[in-house]
Fold ABC transporter ATP-binding protein.
Amino acid sequence: MNALIEARNLHKVYKTDGVETPALRGANLTVKAGEFTAIAGPSGSGKSTLLHLLGGLDRPTEGEVWLDGERLDDKNAVERARLRLWKVGFVFQAYNLIPVLTALENAAFVLELRGRPSAERRERALAALAELELDGYAERRPNQLSGGQQQRVAVARALAAEPAVIFADEPTANLDSKTGLALIEYMKRLNREKGVTFVFSTHDPRLLEHVRRVVHLEDGRIAGEEVRG
């Protein structure tokens, strides 16, 4: 497997009213294509910050981020957005679906931003929804869906775009036990059968039981990792 993501000596300091708060303190991480990996740690450990830096949503105060052979941290906001559009999928704890769009339209949204033809957008979005057993909900808007269904639409949106990697920030945190486990099984199957690379930030033991690699983060530093199977 090839190195897909590399983080080199990442530091991130947030400044609020002149007060500096360090979130990351020299994190180094390599993720290979096809991994099913979690960044774990308690609240405030820096795991969401690290995930956002790896995906180009933010820039480090110091250090380098490389994604699929391209350096992210030296790009401006427009350049990072363009790279995310083509190579990165995000699944957020709060779903981040567009309320006025249907599940189908939400799933096709990234493809629309890419300028793909409408027929292709529809075909790929429907296929992604079907993968997640949501094809019967294609015309429903987010307020007509349960939390678990909305989270699966968010996964379908990421999947339809066929990115190099999907970053998922606490994807099961708002889900009940049954729905959370079902979503984990869906993502495991996509990883196993389609080779989709997943990187999670989480402290949910349900998810940590199923990943193949756990990177432990404490006080902004990588404290160790476990590799399974």
